[in-house]
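Hi all, posting the design record for the shared folder.

TITLE: backbone redesign
STEP: 1 of 1
STRUCTURE INPUT:
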């Protein structure tokens, strides 16, 4: 797979009505804090044009990848209860991460996964994420692994569950040294992680280990 040098995002396969048919679990998560599905759909659809669609692409990349991270009792996505939809402030939607709320049972599941041999996740330094207390990083792939970071002091009740704030993202690189050099240092100068590059790396990584093609529902067209 190659990305065109000049590209545009096509969300025809990720429209809100389609999402409710092909990714019902995800649609329910996206609508968790609104009583009206139409309101949730409008909020979701507004992201198609926000920052040229990069933020929505990131959201779809990460949630699709979370659905491929198997844990006891489901996938990492199974424990996600809601997404923060703010476009401003420290917990805003961005093209490299999002914030949300997860069932705290996911922490024990990730710890169990970390202790497996071979393990699919490893502990990661939370200090790179302001105010975070704990972080786990998928280590299955050579590139584009999901990282799940937690802010355990932030809580919100959803459906009777005292949920914990979660900050999921996907790093280009598996090892910390390369991540610090290729992403963290570069991001400090204003060049954010590109969700289209994440899409490409994750698609390739999945093919190498025999997974079905990575499909975050959107496509990339030549502009």
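Okay, here is what came back for every position:
SEQUENCE:
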């Amino acid at each position: 797979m190659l990305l065109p040098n000049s590209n545009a995002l096509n969300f025809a396969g990720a429209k809100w009505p389609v999402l409710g048919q092909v990714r019902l679990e995800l649609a329910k998560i996206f609508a968790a804090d609104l009583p009206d599905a139409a309101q949730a759909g409008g909020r979701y659809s507004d992201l198609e044009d926000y920052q040229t669609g990069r933020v929505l692409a990131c959201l779809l990349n990460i949630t699709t990848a979370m659905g491929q991270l198997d844990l006891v009792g489901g996938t990492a996505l199974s424990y996600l209860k809601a997404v923060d939809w703010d476009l401003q402030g420290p917990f805003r939607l961005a093209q490299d991460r999002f914030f949300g709320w997860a069932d705290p049972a996911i922490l024990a599941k990730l710890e169990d996964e970390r202790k497996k041999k071979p393990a699919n996740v490893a502990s990661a330094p939370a200090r790179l994420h302001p105010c975070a207390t704990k972080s786990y990083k998928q280590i299955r792939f050579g590139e584009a692994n999901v990282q799940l970071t937690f802010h355990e002091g932030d809580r919100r009740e959803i459906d009777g569950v005292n949920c914990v704030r979660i900050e999921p993202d996907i790093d280009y690189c598996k090892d910390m040294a390369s991540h610090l050099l290729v992403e963290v240092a570069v991001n400090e100068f204003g060049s954010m992680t590109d969700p289209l590059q994440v899409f490409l790396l994750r698609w390739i990584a999945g093919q190498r280990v025999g997974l079905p093609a990575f499909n975050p529902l959107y496509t990339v067209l030549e502009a």
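COMMENT: Residues 176-190 have pLDDT under 50 and may be disordered.
Let me know if anyone wants the other runs.
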